[in-house]
């Protein structure tokens, strides 16, 4: 199986694990539901007031003819809502993991325990691990915001905005998801986002094989409730695979639980 297929396979394993455990599905689905409600509510409020906001942002158009003024403000209102949707799509998983951090940590630990995996630890206590999770989630949300702001204006360029930009948006969002759902393993090793990115980049075909389907499935309403916890399980397996700490189940090169070290080979 090629690297891309191996990445997709990890997501499939995560989906299988979640669907056979109603408790894990419930634990992982509730935070995803809450973050979905927050984002939909925010976008809905923005859409409702987008006309007023567009008028407030364009006082210079008061002297224009009614037709041109209406066109400008309609385009601006649509752009504001579209930007909010883009921002929500790239920050959804980070927001979900921020809301449901303890639940997803439990899912990750259970996955490792059931499969005999152990990534080791740098000795940080639980409060420090919680802080690392919150810090990384906030940083990834910020990266998502900056990426959305960078891509958004190019979406209005003819041809480019309808072809290249959507593909770049999917790849960018997918990569953020990979950084997010592999976090529980890497955070225990004291690996920040920069080191995590460099490690995953060396296995980018495998990572994108996992992350692109995850991102696309997250765009389907309601599907996120199953996809996010499945991606957390798959992210644990993916992290162990790229670290070389593969063991348990049908993963090759098993490393007995407790024998892994923080300096595992890549």
UniProtKB/TrEMBL annotation:
Transmembrane segments: 25-51, 71-104, 137-157, 163-186, 207-228
Entry keyword Ligase: no
Subcellular localization(s) per the UniProt record: Membrane
GO cellular component: plasma membrane
Keywords tagged on the record: Amino-acid biosynthesis, Cell inner membrane, Cell membrane, Membrane, Sulfate transport, Transmembrane, Transmembrane helix, Transport
Chief location category: membrane
GO molecular function, a single term: high-affinity sulfate:proton symporter activity
Cell inner membrane as UniProt keyword: yes
Name of the protein: CysZ protein
Membrane topology: Multi-pass membrane protein
Single biological process term from Gene Ontology: cysteine biosynthetic process
